[in-house]
Structures are given as structure tokens and as C-alpha cells.
Specification:
Blueprint: H1 24-35, H2 51-79, H3 82-106, H4 110-126, H5 134-137, H6 147-153, E1 161-164, E2 168-171, H7 172-183, H8 193-209, H9 212-220, H10 225-244
Antiparallel strand pairs: 1-2
Length: about 260
């Protein structure tokens, strides 16, 4: 029997965030924010006063993606069997549950904290270090949280939409939270450095591979990809922030993402 969902929880899904970078990315983004302060125009969205800068950074990110990230992710997807990719995805998602436990605790979300705590321990001990998602089979939902949402829980507004170099869509609040989120990434605790760098690279490639299907949909659609990506990102972050604040519950467990790729 398929376990019922707990209201306010989300089922595990493929990550959409790009690879973690060093804290200097936050300083770089804030510098870009200052430099782009006068770059707003009359056609910008109220939530996107930095649209000229953001569009320029999006073009830069797209060029890097086309030249490097997408080809590597495509080769990884083609060369790696789907069950193996699922295991890699589960492994990094399990590490994320540990950080979600910290943020759910900071948000005074007892249910989310307990679920994240038990998910991490069950999958680590019984799921081969998180490669197998045993906790989901047991009916434990995933409460994904980060420090940006924790800041929102305690009243900090998101601020303008901001596109970061390489990392992609963000907000000013999430950018300020980025160094803390990086510190909470358990991959940073791995020694030696060579193993840490290998895991970081694998996480980046896996995350990009999970976006290949979404990219194909956007490429085929007759729409402004920049505006569509911005609006979906802001809507999802707003929903998750409202959930963290206890104002509403997410009804879509996939957080606006495409369904996971079926196994071959």
C-alpha cells in the first residue's frame, strides 16, 4: 500500500540547485547588485528591478552551460544507468536532509525536524549511506529547508530577484544566506580535499543532468525563457517560505519541477 502524505511535506525529488560554490560567490553577487543599481528600466517587473543585469548574467550563464555544463551532464546521463543516477541523487538528497533538520529546528518546526532527523539516520544506516531511500518507503516525508527560508520564517523579506554567476536564480535574501548554506553542506567536511572536490563535481553534474528534460521543454516552448524561469522560481520560493512560516501548505510535492525521469 502506498503511504499517505503528511500535509505540508514534500516528496523527495531531483534537486534544481546548481553546484555549491565558495562563499566568495555571495560577495560577488552583492557587488554586482551595487553595480547594477542604476540598471533598472521602465519595463522591469516589480520583483525584478535588476532585470537588465539579470538578463546579462543569464546570457553569461547560458553560454557557460552550453559550452561546458550541458555537454558534461548529457554525457553523464547517457553513460550512467538510471538506477545508478537515482542512487547518486538519493545520496546527495540524504546529505541535504541533515541541513534541513538544522533549519527546521531553527524554524521551530518540530514535525519537519523529526522527519528530517529520522530520514537522515535511517537512510544513512539502512540505505547504504543514503544511496537507497529507505525512509521514503517507510512513509517519512521530506521537509526540504535552507537558511534562506529560515531567514524568511523570522521575517526577512526576499528582496529583488537576482541571478548569480554560475549558480543561477536567487534573491537577495537567499544570496545573503548562501555562505551559511555552504557551511551546512556536509560535503565540505569530507577529507581528503581530492575526495571533497570529486564529490562537489559529481553533485554539480548530477544536478545539471536532472535539469536536462526541463531545459528541453523550455527550448521547445514559444516563450521568454528568462521571464518564465524567474516567475516559476519566485513562485516556488514564495510558496516554500509561506509554508515555513506556517501560513499555507504546499499542495504540489514536486515544487513545480518536472516528474523524475523513468528508469530505463
Amino acid at each position: 500500500m502506498k503511504p499517505s502524505r503528511t500535509p505540508g511535506a514534500t516528496r523527495p525529488h531531483n534537486p534544481t540547485s546548481a553546484a555549491p560554490r565558495r562563499a566568495g560567490a555571495g560577495a560577488l553577487a552583492l557587488m554586482a547588485l551595487v553595480l547594477a543599481g542604476c540598471a533598472s528600466g521602465p519595463r522591469t517587473s516589480p520583483n525584478d528591478p535588476l532585470e537588465p543585469y539579470n538578463r546579462g548574467m543569464t546570457q553569461f550563464n547560458d553560454a557557460v552551460d552550453a559550452a561546458l555544463l550541458k555537454p558534461v551532464a548529457t554525457a553523464y546521463q547517457q553513460a550512467t544507468p538510471a538506477p545508478v543516477r537515482t542512487g547518486v541523487n538519493n545520496f546527495f538528497a540524504n546529505l541535504g536532509d541533515a541541513w534541513s533538520f538544522v533549519n527546521n529546528t531553527l524554524q521551530l518546526n518540530a514535525e519537519g525536524a523529526l522527519s528530517s532527523f529520522f530520514r537522515f539516520n535511517i537512510n544513512t544506516l539502512m540505505g547504504l549511506g543514503g544511496v537507497l531511500d529507505v525512509a521514503s518507503e517507510m512513509g517519512l516525508d521530506r521537509y526540504r529547508q535552507d537558511f534562506g527560508l529560515t531567514l524568511g520564517r523570522w521575517g526577512m523579506p526576499p528582496g529583488p530577484y537576482l541571478v548569480l554567476p554560475i549558480l543561477g536564480p536567487s534573491t537577495v535574501r537567499d544570496t545573503l544566506a548562501l555562505p551559511v548554506d555552504m557551511r551546512g553542506n556536509l560535503v565540505r567536511q569530507v577529507d581528503p580535499v581530492s575526495a571533497r572536490n570529486s564529490l562537489t563535481a559529481l553533485r554539480a553534474v548530477d544536478a545539471r543532468a536532472n535539469l536536462l528534460r526541463a531545459g528541453e521543454v523550455l527550448d521547445d516552448a514559444a516563450l521568454d525563457k528568462y521571464s518564465f524561469t524567474r516567475d516559476v522560481f519566485l513562485q516556488v520560493r514564495s510558496q516554500r517560505a509561506a509554508e515555513a512560516a506556517g501560513k499555507e501548505h504546499l499542495q504540489n510535492g514536486d515544487n513545480g519541477m518536472l516528474p523524475p525521469e523513468p528508469e530505463q
